[in-house]
Structure prediction request, 260 residues.
Amino acid sequence: MIRKPLIIANWKMKVPRSRVDYVLRALALGIKHYRKELEDYSFVACPSFESIDHAVTSIRKLRAPISVGAQDCFWETSGAYTGEVSPLTLEELGCTYCIVGHSERRTLVGETDAQVNKKVRCLLTKTSLTPIVCIGENRAERSAGKTRSVLKRQLNHAFKQVTVRRTVVIAYEPMWAISTSRGSKPMTARECRGAYEFIHEQCQRMGISRAHRTVLYGGSVSHDTIRPFVAKGVSDGALIGSASTDIVEFNALLRMLAKP
Ligand code: PGA
Prediction:
């Protein structure tokens, strides 16, 4: 099966509204420059909520082949939920993807497996947004040999009572490998292979067919590390945080993807 590798830029809270045009223009220019080599790739930018409308307008003006995703959403589409963001509003704004269960939300604001499940269910049943479900073990779980049980638990919860009939994206993001500029070592494509195969096995067991699942890697992906993940078919693409907000670095990453 021919699958388009998916490159998702998770801007986190690092690109203020005033810089959205600048970052998108650089990304669009990079994609245009390597358009032949990158024609098989799909690109998604995930700005923070307050910049989504601006990003959508900017991409339309640039006529760039970039989709827009949100970094989170609430699990209801409307009601008395002060401060929350409806996935229907995200859709209205022009998003086509939505990240769910990112490790920063799980650890910093205590998002639970049950909440991730409610969000996945809402996205799949009440919207046309494609969920990007983040899973991954932390350092202690990895050291204790619990990687597989953590991945299994997170997948089982995320897709509980869900029948997947359209594409879902699953991002394997080992927590210890995220933002490793803070000191630890990123994961290599070779280290990732076992977990990646395990995720595919579990998805198959849960009835998420290969045609409906895109499984990505995320965690300190840079121009130095991207190629083995996509070139050797380890992963269907990558979820890129910090490197996607640095236009020089992201251009170098596109150059690496474009290499024969
Ligand atoms: P990173 O972030 O590339 O900065 O490690 C990835 C992510 O958190 O999605």
